[in-house]
Amino acid sequence: KSDKKIKTKAVLIAAGTKKRQLGVPGEHQLKDNGVSYCATCDGYIYENQPVAVVGGGNSGLEAALDMAKIATEVYLIIRGEQLSGDKSLQDKVNNSDKIEVCKSYQTTEIKGEQKVESIRIKNFNTGKERELNVKAIFIEIGLIPNTGFICEHLDINQGNEIIIDANNKTSIEGIFAAGDVTNIKDKQIIVSAAEGAKAALRANEYLS
Q1: Which residues are catalytic?
Q2: Which residue, 36, 51, 100, 114, is the most exposed by fewest CB within 10 angstroms?
Q3: 21-139 adopts what CATH topology?
Q4: How many CB atoms lie within 10 A of CB 6?
């Protein structure tokens, strides 16, 4: 953080997003020691070990399927009563012998001294609690736009995304925004890169 002030005639916000966290005991303390937000990045570390994945959308299903290829068993923990990802992914998950889908469960605690040793989950409907002995938990529950520094000034939607028009203009003249921090529908790297280029062109036109 800095108190330095810069005068400018235009601003382009491309602050991106960050991984949504569970906010449960043990999550922060054991981050990078069994708590991961990227199965693609860290999954190989837990080959031939039991793991858990949290998230019933496409990211969670894909992570569970990837881990099923190398882990001994995979617990897929979802808040709803049904999976919400693509039908093709749902079918693969349901047909996997290595994946146990824990429906209507929430994670309440991540346990371990130096590394993850187990997690506790609780059923929304029955109150039943379970302790799963796993060596890693992959949290795939979505993204949060980095708009905390600007949300009081610009129009944002219910997802805290900056609302832009077709020319990447925000609710304040001279402020443009691009990428996953905005309310664009498609959250893909190639789309965000193109949006950044487009926003820069519109800002340049504004300054001309």
Answers
A1: 38, 41-42
A2: 114
A3: FAD/NAD(P)-binding domain (3.50.50)
A4: 6
Domains 11-18+143-207 and 21-139 belong to one CATH topology: yes
Contacts of 179 (CB under 8 A, 6+ apart): 14, 16, 192, 193, 195, 196
Name the CATH superfamily housing domain 11-18+143-207.
Answer: FAD/NAD(P)-binding domain (3.50.50.60)
SS (H, E, C) 98-122: CEEEECCEEEEEEECCCCCCEEEEE
Structure tokens of 133?
A: 């002995």
pLDDT digits (tens, 9 = 90+) for 132-167: 999 999 999 988 999 999 989 999 999 999 999 999
CA distance 83 to 60: 10
Residue 108: both structure tokens together? 């309440």
